[in-house]
DNA sequence: TGATCTTGTCTCACATAATGAGACAAGATT
DNA sequence: AATCTTGTCTCATTATGTGAGACAAGATCA
């Protein structure tokens, strides 16, 4: 369960249920365990979500993410033109560096991966689309926090900060002087070296410029 | 707003809000108009959803689908192994017929498109991933309703039934004697002719068998 | 075999928690 | 300056969601 509060209890509980189902809970009692809610409450709320297609149940009565979420997820992706427009630059960046490239946007106190281009290597960084990461960690985190030092330099790098063994370099995508997104390359330190910036900073910044141009940001 | 009731009012309202935002409502009053809910209620509920990332607001305070939905949508897709496994057969079917191919599963009194392979033609059928269609219409609807006549024949066809000008042929994907999905080709009647079955039935049924094989259904 | 868990489900008395009319400030139009 | 229209907030009211507990049906035990 994620502990956020919203002022509307039912919504908190319903979202906790969605998160629990997303994270693989299948049986009623698993949902109860994961959310900490009383069983009848889980049952009733889950039933309500099922009625709306946000949760579904298979023939064994297992709870699963509802198919309605597919369309909602699509709508969310499409509501962010930046993600669509960044796809090409991301792929170029991936091809130029050989490493996985991602686009992140800030979301409250976290950051969300909204576009990816995966490295062809067998050993590569994988950040699932939609993944919510810690805003306090990683080079993309530093960018999205709009750290003055980072903005002055035009990029940020990190080694094993968010996850051991992976290094990354990120650059801000700017709209005027506002950071609207962070574009990153990341890969295993074995390939990227302990000073990934030296190798990748230029390419990442170029990609950021490409995204800005494609998005028509001045 | 979709008028479904679930027994938990707050959930109904929250879902109505998600639907409204999905369908493009951007301002508070648009949400009010679309859902029929009182303004303070919309405001409070929307704020709650924003706190959880299911809705987001841009710098102009417009309401937009929340990025959290991206991950949930992914989870929903992945929870349906059939969709992943059907991708190849769908593409083969598309290539064999030149028309768009879709996989539908039943969801309550509707049907949801869970996988697609789009025709290369300029004029083609487009069914967005996650789209919820009428179970009562179209050849895929007949399949998912498990109509005896359809099951006996092994396929269904329709011309201009769900949407004027488009014809389709669908076959059931079976698990034992249970219909678990419908696989379809559809295109403009100008190309498919008024008797699409003659041309496509065999290919669609073959695709259904391929999906069953790939999914390990006996 | 019968006893004991553990499922999912449902009811219902209770008070928490959501409600929504109304008021407010701040822009935008007039 | 007067009038809409935004988004936002409060607060008295009670509708609404709550969850302990009971139930039936399997599963697993002895």
Question: What would you say the CATH architecture of the largest domain in chain A is?
Answer: 2-Layer Sandwich
Q: What is the residue-mean pLDDT of chain A, rounded to a whole number? A: 91
Residues in helix, % of chain A: 40-55%
The CATH class assignment of the largest domain in chain A is: Alpha Beta
How far from one another are the termini of chain A? 41 Å
Order of helices and strands of chain A: HHHEEHHEEEHHEEEHH
CATH topology of the largest domain in chain A: Beta-Lactamase
The biggest beta sheet of chain A reads: 6 strands, antiparallel
Which helices and strands, and how do they pair?
The structure is a homodimer of 218-residue chains.
Chain A: H1 9-22, H2 28-35, H3 39-51, E1 55-57, E2 63-65, H4 68-78, H5 81-97, E3 100-107, E4 110-117, E5 132-134, H6 138-144, H7 148-153, E6 156-159, E7 166-175, E8 178-188, H8 189-192, H9 196-215
Antiparallel strand pairs in A: 1-2, 3-4, 3-8, 4-5, 6-7, 7-8
Chain B binds a DNA duplex (30 and 30 nucleotides) through helix 3.
